[in-house]
Amino acid sequence: MNEAANPEDLAALRVAIAACRLCREAPARAGDVLPHEPRPVAVISSTARILIAGQAPGLRVHESGLPFNDASGDRLRDWLGVDRAAFYDPDRFAIVPMGLCFPGYDAHGSDLPPRRECAPFWRARIMTTMPQVELVLAIGQYAQAWHLGAAKAASMTETVRDWHRHLGRNEAPAVLPLPHPSWRNTGWLKRNPWFEAEILPELRSRVKRLMTEI
């Protein structure tokens, strides 16, 4: 097991994240200011050995302050084989998206990508402050790009299909790439039955082991 996180460092990090206004005061692109007040949503943990690395909060999560508090979260919890109590137990799961705030909608009413300022400023610091994490669930292309780097394939499907190689890398923490659990991806799941047949058993087995060994 990796070394433990420093609770004082985590406390300072939580305060700094809660106060962040980078996307309002120093946007990566001139004029591209977050159109609403920031509300960073992240579960930083000193004990969790599993990190859920998603994309960015949606509107419901922005309003509630609770990550994956929507239909996507229901599907993700089913993938993991855990209930809400376990999922929201910070001793078991850290939950930190690539963009900490709801980015707003595009002209078609879809969620915008994670803010460009966020991951370059926060991600390395967050990972350094949680050295006990042993498994990163990299959900979607943005998390996969950061956590897998050059090992990421050209498409999300190719990256997820190559999960054996990613988990087998001799690096810590282990990274398991996953598609986003959005209900918009139902068609993708039907076209790629190998995901449920091959990956979900491995995912549930690893989650159960890491939760049991706390």
From TrEMBL:
Pfam families: UDG. InterPro entries: HI_0220.2, Uracil-DNA_glycosylase-like, Uracil-DNA_glycosylase-like_sf. It comes from the Bacteria. Residues 41-204 form the Uracil-DNA glycosylase-like domain. Coiled coil: none annotated. This is Uracil-DNA glycosylase family protein. It comes from Shinella oryzae.
